[in-house]
Design brief:
The complex is a heterotrimer of chains A (296), B (359) and C (269). Chain A is mainly alpha-helical. Chain A has a single domain, classed as MetI-like (MetI-like fold). Chain C has a domain of 179 residues: MetI-like fold. Chain C contains eleven helices and no strands. Classes of the chains: A mainly alpha (296), B alpha+beta (359), C mainly alpha (269).
């Protein structure tokens, strides 16, 4: 039977109730002002000549000719491509662990969710204390007798280790984001499905692969989209750990605005990030789409 | 005076017609029950009277005032919800006086009414507690108290007993009846439980698909259901209906047995063209042991004070209530008779009762 | 204890340790005497715990100011975000109106617009409006970033308050507004508090927009980035700053963990 008491009385067919529209208007107008308008502005800025006001591709040209550009694109994509599969695996492991509801799983969940409250800046500073020359990693290695003098993990001499440090920090911080979405998704899967599989003799790995993962697809999709978009915005972690040694797109946007004083080129970077995010979202939506018939 | 006059109410939800041209009069001080299965529109009607649903068409008058356009707070009504809707963040006492406070009633008067209501509903000792600390039955009584302190013209109740366990429900039914005798407000009560309806109502309005099918005293509804639907709804177990054929010679043929047409129906059947007829007979009035009809016992259910038999005759099933120590067992073949005074004939096509003359 | 149970405990302990250890380390680093931070061999455990690094950090020029700015911006953001999102959330939950689904989707979609994309054009706009380098300007941006989350949280909180309670209030003489203020709001208060604290964390942590939109009136993250990039901040400075960033978040998360998980649809039983 219809749950009629959830909503305010429905008006007559001919009447329009204005109240909801009035209530929603401030938030809607605000978001339009602060999201749609700047986005349009960003596109405009990136394509407009500041002197003449006419359309120009000069900024994008400038962008591609900058020596930092291709490294920034490469590193942004690289960090994302390495970190995300790792996070996915780890987040899935944590989510499955939580799902078994072992005694203490509540505390475990809370602890693993702690990084949700950290910015990429805080994470960068935290792992700085570990990776820096006089940091805890070197201290531990020295205490174990593995090294005599400190290893500089974060210098230009070892770009791979620098990248590794950044990836590690990202994995450490942002796994929680993916994890929380997956835990929620797992909870939505009725126990019946798993139990049915078990009754039919499926072993844990089979249950995971054939039952849980397919049913988790929508959550995986959401998690991947959210996480990847965030990954393209990576800024503070890189700045703290590597300065400009490892250029990234968001960092370049900042430098072009604050250092080189060109809001136009900075906007071009912003538009690029936007396009990348949109493209990736589209790819995820297509490849991870669950056919309507197969949905629960 | 707090009589209610509903005229031509209509309410749709999108394409679904919840109330279909409903008109009803409720006398001052009357306890009227809206009875019917899920989706029949009884709750919608109640909420429309309360002002919680906006009607497509129709007028509602309470105590002579047209309240159709008034908000719930200004109609002189008070309502008890199915889920009680007791405010969890207030103590019981504050819950009870909430409406009085909204109305600006002075504190002393608030206190007087609250204590009187609490006394009436026997919740005086939990006035200081929070609803979460109360049992379901206690919360229900708080909801009722909160409504009656308003001294409303009309008291509306939406299945208030349905969330209680059977024993408590029985107890509260008697309490509500006592309450109505003492307080005396016009009450409209919604339920799907026909036992409740029979027990509590001065009159019952049986509803189906957004319309009132029959509105009468419980006894008359029970004795003379207006159609097959009402007959199949009232009574536990409800009336049996068997398919029969008029033989044109003052008899009804059921299978290969012929029963005489009851005297009261004879004038009506003169005008009847269609020979097919539905024979209605309540389970407790079927005589088992002797009679022209033959049936086989299929199921025997001991119910404590009585026994419920399911019999099959000529391919049709019917239920019969007999005394607890009746010897009939499954597989037995028994004879039975339908006393003409209790037979009710219905038209199989319209499903409506055929006119009867006399008692 | 079965092997399986043992395996579960082992795995979860390892993972929990991996999450907690760095947090412990930053606290350790911030509370280590400054000279020790540069010593080699570097001891894992400091000779003595001291707050002098933290105090020195706080007494640096503009740090106290930056801390205060962060608090102010967060406070402004909470007020603005709740003020805008709460009515919208109420409308989304209690009313059926045309465009409701589209609006919900639209609000969620704005989560996809990162601060990095919006900050640069917003900087240009704010300059024109004379709001550049003001805390209010930063709060405006933070508000737009947090509205999607706040709307979601507040909507689920309001949805948790049965509409029948409001209806009961209506029958007892309340107007819709009174019913909201006297019934829905008090019951929803804990949830609203959770939404507020979530907004606090979001604003406290926000880096990019704050860095771009401020010069003198920096928030803590903006100050730290600026220090790292242009002033070559010494280690103790970075560690102390890191701890200041981390500590409120950890504490707050402890307080609102139930609601935080509810945000993503998780229930901890």
């Amino acid at each position: 039977m219809r749950n009629r008491t959830e909503h305010a009385p429905e008006p007559k067919a001919t009447q329009v109730v204005w109240t909801p529209y009035i209530l929603v208007l401030p938030a809607f107008a605000y978001l339009a002002l602060f999201i749609l308008y700047p986005m349009a502005q960003a596109i405009r800025l990136s394509l407009t000549d500041p002197q003449t006001g006419g359309w120009t591709a000069a900024h994008f040209l400038r962008l591609t000719q900058d020596p930092y550009f291709w490294p920034a694109v490469r590193y942004t994509l690289l960090i994302t491509a390495i970190a995300i599969p790792l996070q996915l695996a780890l987040a899935l492991a944590i989510a499955l662990l939580v799902h078994t509801r072992f005694p203490g799983h509540g505390v475990f969940l809370y602890l693993c969710a702690l990084p949700l409250g950290l910015s990429d800046l805080a994470a960068g500073l935290i792992w700085l204390s570990i990776f820096t020359e006089r940091g805890y990693l070197n201290a531990a290695l020295q205490a174990l007798g593995l090294i005599r003098s400190p290893v500089s993990f974060l210098s230009y001499e070892h770009p791979h280790w620098l990248l590794g440090a950044i990836v590690l920090t990202e994995v450490w911080r942002a796994t929680a984001i993916v994890m929380v979405i997956l835990v929620a998704g797992l909870q939505l899967i009725p126990r019946d499905y798993v139990e049915t599989a078990q009754v039919f003799g499926a072993r844990p790995w089979q249950t995971l692969w054939h039952v849980l993962l397919p049913l988790l697809r929508p959550s995986l999709q959401t998690a991947l989209i959210v996480r990847t978009i965030l990954a393209f915005q990576l800024f503070a972690t890189v700045v703290v750990l590597a300065g400009r040694l490892i250029p990234v797109l968001a960092g370049e946007a900042y430098f072009w605005y604050a250092l080189y004083r060109s809001p136009n080129v900075a906007s071009a970077y912003a538009v690029l990030i936007l396009l990348l995010s949109g493209a990736v979202t589209w790819v995820y939506l297509r490849t991870l789409r669950t056919p309507v018939e197969a949905q629960a | 005076m707090a009589e209610i006059v509903l005229r031509n109410l209509r309410k749709t939800f999108g394409k679904v017609v919840a109330i279909r041209d409903l008109s009803l009069d409720v006398a001052d001080g009357e306890f009227l029950v809206l009875l019917g299965p899920s989706g029949c529109g009884k709750t919608t009607t109640l909420r429309a009277i309360a002002g919680l649903e906006v009607l497509d068409r129709g007028t509602i008058r309470i105590g002579g005032r047209d309240v159709t356009r008034l908000p719930p707070g200004k109609r002189g009504i008070a309502m008890v919800f199915q889920s009680y809707a007791v405010f969890p963040h207030m103590r019981v006492y504050d819950n009870i006086v909430f409406g009085l406070r909204m109305r600006g009633i002075p504190l002393a008067e608030q206190r007087r009414r609250a204590l009187a209501a609490a006394e009436l509903l026997q919740i005086t000792d939990v006035l200081d507690r929070y609803p979460a600390q109360l049992s379901g039955g206690q919360r229900q009584r708080v909801a009722v108290a909160r409504a009656i302190v308003m001294e409303p013209d009309v008291l509306l109740m939406d299945e208030p007993l349905s969330n209680l366990d059977a024993l408590l429900r029985l107890h509260m039914r008697a309490e509500l009846k006592r309450l109505h005798r003492e307080v005396g407000s016009t009450t409209v009560y919604v339920t799907h439980d026909q036992v409740e309806a029979m027990s509590l109502g001065d009159r019952i309005a049986v509803m189906r698909d957004g319309e009132i099918v029959q509105c009468d005293t419980p006894q008359r509804i029970y004795d003379d259901p207006a159609n097959v639907f009402v007959g199949s709804f009232i009574g536990s177990p409800p009336m049996n209906f068997l398919r029969g054929v008029l033989d044109g010679a003052g008899g009804i043929r059921l299978g290969d047995t012929v029963l005489p047409v009851p005297v009261a129906y004879q004038p009506a059947l003169g005008a009847q063209r269609d020979p097919e007829v539905l024979v209605g007979i309540p389970p407790e009035h079927i005589v088992v042991g002797a009679g022209p009809l033959v049936a086989e016992v299929v199921v025997s259910e001991p119910l404590g004070p009585s026994k419920l038999l399911t019999l099959r005759t000529h391919g049709q099933l019917l239920k019969v209530t007999v005394r607890a120590d009746h010897p009939a067992a499954p597989g037995d073949v028994v004879h039975m008779d339908f006393p003409p005074a209790h037979v009710r004939l219905m038209d199989p096509k319209t499903e409506r009762a055929l006119p009867r003359t006399g008692p | 204890m079965t092997a399986r149970r043992l395996g579960l405990y082992a795995a979860s302990t390892v993972i929990a340790a991996w999450v907690l250890l760095p947090l412990a380390l930053i606290a350790l680093a911030a509370l280590t005497p400054r000279e020790e931070l540069y010593r080699w061999p570097r001891p894992l455990w400091p000779d003595r715990f001291t707050a002098e690094g933290m105090l020195f950090f706080v007494h640096q020029a503009r740090v106290l100011r930056a801390l205060w700015n962060s608090v102010l911006v967060a406070g402004l953001t909470i007020a603005l975000a709740l003020g805008l999102a709460a009515p919208a959330a109420y409308a989304l939950v209690r009313y059926r109106f045309r465009g409701r689904e589209a609006l919900q989707l639209g609000i969620l979609a704005t989560k996809m617009f990162p601060a990095t994309v919006l900050s640069v054009p917003l900087a240009v706009v704010l300059i024109r409006l004379n709001l550049y380098d003001t805390l209010f300007g930063v709060a405006l941006v933070h508000t737009s970033l947090s509205i999607p989350f706040v709307t979601l949280i507040v909507a689920s909180v309001f949805a948790g308050v049965p509409y029948e309670l409001e209806e009961a209030a209506l029958t007892l003489g309340c107007s819709r507004l009174q019913a909201f203020l006297r019934i829905t709001l008090p019951i929803a208060l804990p949830g609203l508090a959770a939404a507020a604290t979530f907004t606090f964390i979001l604003s406290w942590n926000e880096v990019f927009a704050a860095t771009i939109l401020t010069l003198d009136n920096r928030t803590l993250p903006a100050l730290l980035i600026h220090s790292v990039l242009s002033e070559g901040a010494p280690l103790y400075f970075r560690y102390a700053g890191g701890l200041f960033l981390v500590l409120p978040a950890v504490v707050i998360l402890l307080l609102i963990r139930r609601y935080l998980l509810t945000l993503w649809g998780v229930t901890v039983r």
